[in-house]
Request: fold
Amino acid sequence: MPLTASAAVLLALLQVAAGAPPAGGPPARAQTDTGPVVPLDRFYAQVLANHPVARAARLARDQAAQDVRIARGAFDPTIAATWDRKAEKGSAKYSEVDAELKLPTITGADVKVGYSRGLGPSLNPQNGTANAGLLALGVSLPLGQRIVTDERRNALAQARAALDFAEGDRMSLVNGLLLRATRDYARWFEAWRRAAIARDGVGLADFRLRAVRLRLANGEAPAIDTLEARLEVNRREGIRVQEEQALYAATLLLQAYLWDERGQPVDLAAGARPANEGFATPVALERVPTWLAAAERAHPELAKVAARIRQVEAQRLFLGQQFIPFAALDVSAVSDADRTDGLTDAGGWGDNYKFGATFRSPVLYLRERGRFSQISQRLDQQRQIEAQLRRDVRNAVLVGANDVRAVDEQIALQAVTVQQARGMLAGEQRRFENGESSLLIVNLRERLVLDEEVRLAALQARAAVVRAELAVAIGAPARLP
Reply:
């Protein structure tokens, strides 16, 4: 039963004791109940969409995506062409044209299509061609080193892993942001409830003061009761001022998370108030195995260390290739440019071709062995970090689930305590009416009700925090479990 309902009960009891209703009627409902409600999910959505930290995290992820595009540029087809011409005293010495289209492939081979034309008396004979020029169609093949991977494929693998790392880092930043936002939302909720309770307490004490004055005028109460009632009003008014100050500070803290789509800070609407729907409902703890599996799949810290491992594995594969001697083969079929079937006639390739081979190898492989040993140790290190992190994530989920269960049980017990405190207040009120108690005891009983309401509000705020901590442990902070 809310405090306003308690006020109605006390109003009825005091009206019976005084014989007539006091002027002004019952205390008004707290003003914080009249403003727009700001649910936690809507608050989350605005923070995720517009907060500078969330925006900066998205930009960092987008930059990593551009690094992937840059790495893919190594597989971009290229066109190259040169033209050299020389003339002396009006006489042409030579004219040479070379053009090539190279098509890199993901397998490490490069397909080449070329055209060359060389004419003139001073031209090197090996570069001379018929007047129409020469066409070439060939391939460059790695035969040893770079068969499995090479610089281009390694760079692309590194960039893709870096993109996954950037996404995990973005989620980690969002995790921290939303956890801080939830804590400040819970602080705002608790401050709002405490201020509302304090206002209700002042209203109840002031109402009792007016009722006691009426009873005193009717000769039904001693004069000291008015002093006791006045002291209680002053005491609760001081608490109200303190709670209003705390609510103002909590509101400012919460507003720091609110930004619009243009990147400008915005304020809460006048009289805005929180809502506890969504984080005060019970959580199905039988879902813990599902949460553990979700954390294994999608926790951002695990995603980051997995990305690091993929980066190191790609580098280790590349360095392992360095133990294989470098060997490459360039083979091209050539044909006069005026023969359209020159490159498609396989029977003529044995007589018209270009061939080249390259071989290179260190003798002792000292540098290669050192680099490979380093990267292997780094891979072991990252795997150890991953194993420890998996255990930490699992423990965080279990601790978070236990915290949620404990807080939910505390809320249920505290709700019963509030009801019991109200029952004691009602009983003490009846004793006071029968002349068996004093106004001081009634005030003490009512203070107990107010204090227990405050404790309940603190537990409800804590419920939001522990749910957010559990969501962060699972790796899905934007959706409370």
Q: What stands out?
A: The mean pLDDT is 86.
